[in-house]
Amino acid sequence: MRRKAKTKSLSFTKVLELIGKPAFFLFTIVVVSLATFLQLIKFPSLKLPNPKPRKRKASVWRTFLKRNSWLQAKKGSPAGDRRVLMGTLLVFIFIFFAFNIYYFILRDLPSITLLTDSPPSLSTKIYDRSGELLYQIYKDENRSLIKLDQLPKYLKDATLATEDKNFYHHFGVDPLGIIRATFNNLTKGTTQGGSTITQQLVKNTLLSPEKTFIRKIKELILSLQAESAYTKDQILEMYLNQVGYGGTAYGIEEAARQYFGKSARDLTLAESAMLAGLPISPTILSPFGTNPYLGKIRQQQVLENMVATNTITEDEKVSALATPLVFHPQGISIRAPHFVMYVKDLLVKEYGEAVVARGGLSVTTTLDLNLQNTLQTEINQELSTLTKLHVQNGAGLILDPKTGEVLAMVGSRNFFDSEHDGQVNITLQSRQPGSSIKPITYALALSSGATPSTTIDDTPICFTLTGQPNYCPKNYDGRFHGKVTLRTALASSYNIPAIKLLNTYGLPNMITLARNLGITTWDDPTRFGLSLTLGGGEITMLDLASVYSVFARGGTKVPLTSILSVKDSQGSDLVGGVSSTGDLAKGQVGTPKVGGDSPRGVQVLSPSVAYQINSILSDSGARAPAFGYSSVLNLPGKNVAVKTGTTNDLRDNWTFGYTQDYLVATWVGNNDNSSMSSVASGITGASPIWARTMKSLVKDHPPLPFSVPSNMIAVNLSCTEKPRYEYFVKGTAPKINCAELNGTLLPTADSTSR
Questions:
Q1: Per-residue pLDDT reduced to its tens digit, 297-309
Q2: Nearest alpha-carbon partner for 573 in 364, 368, 366, 367
Q3: What region, left, alpha or beta, does residue 582 occupy, with left being phi > 0 and alpha being psi -120 to 50 degrees?
Q4: Which of 314, 373, 574, 722 has a beta carbon 3.0–4.6 Å from 566's, enabling a disulfide?
């Protein structure tokens, strides 16, 4: 059976397109002719001289009617019918043109007010606390706005001389420029554009990029509208802030920064001429491209155009050409990359991706770039000595315990090291903390009635677990130390006393206290056992640093903060800052202050317990049985608290130490979670990094002693000539009977000097 051929049906829209487009060609000729006529009127120099008065002749219309008498025929006659038919045809032609104009052009013509109602995409800038630029966030287009009156006259003159020398004289469309460009293109074989700056602005901001006849008509109409809606200076300012200069640089301000490392307001004549020539073909003319000499040739053309328009002299042109151009080094411009990416995530969570990528926010962070560089240097220096020990990575934090501000954050050794996952931010990753978690267990015991002088047996013990082998903890040195005080047990980081304390005071109570202090990763208590106090539960460095900050602050907790202020593109403050949890930190920016610069916090631990923890961790004598008196943890003459931690499998090595002004946390290990070699204790790897960093911090700012709460008293526990003091909450101090002790030190006390 023969299959009938399918006939192609033309839709109504297609018919209109086929018929309408030729009609638009005629329409354009009319528009351009009218524009040319108006242009002739606009330039007095092109007007014809007024002729002498002469006798008025009959109008063209009257002459036409005389010669075509059929148009004057009476109604009802054949000639009259022809006139009606002709009139009807003209009406239909008019309707046809009007409908096509609406359907193809006016129906979806953008509003000219979008030039100002919908601002361009702007880059978000992230600064350190002193105003040093760390990074710019943008989507596709990196742009910063600048006012026209802030730009040097050279730059404006160079742009106009090159792009649109009649800018201040035409009405949005330059018919003579179009004719001149067309003539040059045909006769000289060159490619010369005839679009005005107004047309380029409309084309780049309001219209789609495809080159069609319809889009060109829209461009002409919108250009005329723009000229009636905005002043010339407004149009020029919008153009200079919109046009692309190559790569991701959009707008003259960002172009000046990317090419010359300066603001556009500081550009010289030579630099202005170079940038003004780029928009015609930024990729080919770029000084960073494969043919940088082309940009120099283009610069000369721009300067010659400026001479031709009398905006500079010939001598100025020669001088500008002889001036060497010093370009800003290209590359990924980002400082403190792990911190910057951390802040970016907080901003996106708070304000949304679109606002961060295009909203032109100005973000001042808590970061101190000098401290950041110090920490980064110390990490890299130490890791360079541990290469043979299979230690590939390191990380660290510096905080201000008083305010909770993050002063430095190094997430990995090298952010750009893809081989070792350098973009992973270890400070935010969940890893086992080893013994660095023990102070939480001791804080629980001290909160429950124990004191630093309370004794505990460091002797073998096993715990029976249902369905599992007995759990028999051991100390890291494999020895047992007999009866020891809590002070010595924590300072020397003995494992068995910590296990016994947790067993006595309760695992659920420790988890609750840890959450109150700042641990956010222990969501399921059923996962943990007594080994939690030895580091069996994963934490993040940021969380545990928050815990130690609570100790340093005397038991009060403030959210860690990385952002001081956020301003929109107009310079207005947005409400609040952003806390480390990503929530709007309503209490962080503009918070009532107490005691100087410290924001109020929530009391999560009694001041007396916090002081006792601080006293133990800063007691080098109590630490000596395990670490010795010459340990890198000891900073002679400096009152610094410190605690280390190393996991049994040697995958993580930590050090947390603090004064009232600074907290430093350090880590070494491997991103792939593989074990290290020969890092058997807490005094190698992370500790030297911590020690050198802390020394640099307290060098010019000697740390003050930790504040003693008013409800505590000092008790001399020694019956020798050398007094030894321990602080107790009033009413809990032991009674000392030196006659019974026969002049010896109280056996249950291993305390610090006052």
A1: 999 999 999 999 9
A2: 364
A3: left
A4: 574
SS3 552: helix
For 483, list phi and psi in degrees, rounded to 5: -80, 120
CATH homologous superfamily of 141-210+230-322 equals: Biosynthetic peptidoglycan transglycosylase-like (1.10.3810.10)
Helix (H) or strand (E) holding 133: strand 133-137
Alpha helices in 419-506 (DSSP H): 438-447, 486-491, 495-505
Are 440 and 455 a contacting pair, CB within 8 Å?
Answer: no
Q: Residue 555 to residues 127, 442, 714: CA-CA distances in angstroms? A: 31, 14, 20
Dist CA 398 CA 343 (whole Å): 16
pLDDT at site 679: 57
Residue 208 has pLDDT above 60, yes or no: yes
Whole-number Å distance between alpha carbons of 258 and 400 = 34
Give the contacts of 121 (CB within 8 A, at least 6 positions apart): 138, 139, 140, 141, 143, 250, 357, 358
CA distance linking residue 398 with residue 643, whole number of Å: 15
Q: How many Å apart are CA 299 and CA 278, to the nearest integer? A: 9
- What's the whole-number average pLDDT of the chain? 82
Question: Would you state the structure tokens that stand for residue 536, as one six-digit string?
Answer: 């069996």
- Return the domain boundaries, the chain: 18-44+63-106, 141-210+230-322, 405-558+601-698, 710-754
Number of Cβ within 10 Å of residue 67's Cβ equals: 8
pLDDT for 9 beyond 70: no
Coil vs helix vs strand at 592: coil
Could you give the maximum distance between any two Cα atoms of the chain, in Å?
Answer: 147
Residue 624, both tokens: 């000596």
Rounded-to-integer distance, Cα 641 and Cα 653, Å: 18
CATH superfamily for 405-558+601-698 is DD-peptidase/beta-lactamase superfamily (3.40.710.10)
| 284 pLDDT higher than 80 | yes
Structure confidence at residue 102 as a pLDDT band (50, 70, 90): low
Q: 137, 352 in Cβ contact below 8 A?
A: no
- Specify the pTM: 0.72
Amino acid at 135: Y
In the numeric block, which tokens belong to residue 203? 């084309």
> Dihedrals φ, ψ of 686, to 5°?
-70, -35
Q: Could you tell me the pLDDT band of residue 296, with boundaries at 50, 70 and 90?
A: very high
Strands 405-410 and 652-658: unpaired
CA distance 400 to 661: 6
**505 pLDDT more than 60:** yes
Concatenated DSSP letters of 341-368: HHHHHHHHHHH-HHHHHHB--EEEES--
Q: What is the model's pLDDT at position 122?
A: 80
Q: Between vectors from CA 247 to CA 150 and to CA 271, what angle results, nearest 5°?
A: 40
pLDDT by residue (tens digit) across 214-230?
A: 778 888 888 888 898 99
The residue type at 632 = V
Specify the long-range contacts of residues 305-313, CB closer than 8 Å, at least 24 apart.
305/158, 305/161, 305/162, 305/165, 306/157, 306/158, 306/161, 306/273, 308/161, 309/157, 309/160, 309/161, 309/165, 311/157, 311/158, 311/161, 312/154, 312/157, 312/269
In whole angstroms, give the CA distance from residue 143 to residue 404.
33
pLDDT at 573 over 70: yes
What is residue 176's predicted lDDT score, i.e. its pLDDT?
A: 75
**∠ at Cα 14 (11, 19), nearest 5°?**
125
Ramachandran area for residue 483 (φ above 0: left; ψ -120 to 50: alpha; else beta): beta
Indicate the SS3 state at residue 730.
Answer: coil
What is the separation of C-alpha 58 from the centre of its chain, rounded to a whole number of angstroms? 76
